[in-house]
Amino acid sequence: MAMAMALVAGGAAYQACAQPFDAGMAPSVEDLQRLSIDELANIQVTSAAKHPQTLGAVAASIFIITADDIRRSGAASLPEALRLAPNLEVARLNAYGWTVTARGFNSPETANKLLVMINGRSVYEPIGGGILWQQVDVNLANIDRIEVIAGPGGTMWGANAVNGVVNVITKPSAQTQGLYASATAGGFQRAATIRYGGRLSEHVTFKLMGDSFDIDSTEPAAPGDLSSDAFHGAFGSLSVTGEWEGNMLSAGVMTYNNQMADNVATFTGTMGRLNWRHDLGADGGINVNAVLSRDVREETTLYESRDSLTVAAQHDFRAGPHHNIIWGGEFRYWWEDFESFNDFQFSDPKTNISLGSLFAQDEMSLRPDLTLTIGLKAEYNSYSGAEWLPNARLAWQRGNGSLIWASISRAARTPNRIERELTHPLFLQASPDFLSEKVTAYELGWRAQPMDRLSISLSSFYNRYDDLRTDTYPATIFPLILQNGGEGETYGIEGWGKYEVMPGWRLGAGFNLLHKHFWLKPGFNDLTNLAVQGQDPAYQAQISSQWTVTPAVDLNVTLRQVGEVDNAPVPAYTEANATVTWRLTDRLALSLEGLNLLHKHHLEAYDPSAVPARYIPRSISVRLRYGL
Hints:
With 628 residues, the protein is mainly β.
């Protein structure tokens, strides 16, 4: 079954969803470099409620990765940057593959319960579920911030926002005026970026961008294996934004072409988007978004092409002094053609998949220090029908500035094509009755700033899962049929803090603890012994130091420890990243960047369909940036 999942796991990396209403309101990189701990708590975020909120008032386990955090980290890719969030689990499979999740289920087959978005546009793929990172091209220099929420986001974001939401928010063209360029050279990976922003008129700006990357092969764990997983590619985009009298109209196009070694696999795609936002001031706003994309995947064992269309709209407004209401809807449609060059086949190579939803949420001010948020999304998908995704959150803003919050919510992961349609003459029959996997989540959190230079966030959770996937077998073992025969529970704690030792030197620390328990419903069996539970360490921890040594020199160090995975051959490991940056002029900087410095190589994840596992190497690079 693992091989079948690997065969057809793939998808459209640029599906669409409504953009956050304040996508252009974030502070610039230069502003973030100057923000104190106190000011960071007042950053405006949008992913929790689809409208601007200060970070300190959000009733969710939310962590913000700023553009300055990414620059200082030396991260070379989006998943590498996501390691900075203590409420995520990030594991690298090889040169091109990653598994990223929140609160469990992290493995190549099961990392399908975290919704990842680029400017509110979903990159979740509906063939095998999860994220095909080979098709997600985001230049790190173009990121304004990343909002990471652990816990369900089904009411706001719908399908597959089960264990968390990651929203990558890029810089609007008005913040990227002039020339930016960077070049990175190293023993494991190399990259180049060029970006230019300009103004077409008083009200219209544009941004033109291109980048490329080249990643060497990782080392197979099996001695004598000479296989290569080297990966390279290029990306280009153009966006134009006009702003006038409370309106913003933005249009953009992008294209990418990524290839594995010896053209074993090629990933190409194009995307066009159109967004209109109308600001109603204190009365809220209206946002309408449309995206059309095409993604193609060609491998020795398969060919896949997918066209997708998404249209979404939302409206938020004040209803009297005590109610902030947001409502809206979304429609997604996929046209897909899939050809398999072996005996694993879909019942029909061509298919159309649709998903539509309506949602509404009311933030009610019960008293000046107490807010109750109640919301509901009604969603319909062409595979399993209707889903109801409710959410209730209570936030108590205490007099000392701390926030205590609690929530209960429900989310669902919709079936993918593999689960409904994949067949094999001997081993697998179609499962047309496969339903959505579901979770009911209970959360309790505390966020505080005990002193001007210290901030702390703690969250606890209990998740109860139902209708989890099982590979059910009859008395003769084969053929298998995929059914919803599993149940389970997870619970744990996650927390982090930041302390400003002195101006220019900030320390950070974070951790998460996870406990899992899964079982079969009466009358069901599972050939994989509930592999759906994933490969998760019981704990993760990290500490970091961001130090501006002199006005021209930064030194940044991160140490992380990841526990042993008890149901896969992945041992515990400890690694360190370090970056030294010299600002040669106001616009020119040179960095020495090291990733995974403590060992020659180490293992982070195990993919049973791609034996042998591959070691992730130490990486040392030099980067030159112009136009900071």
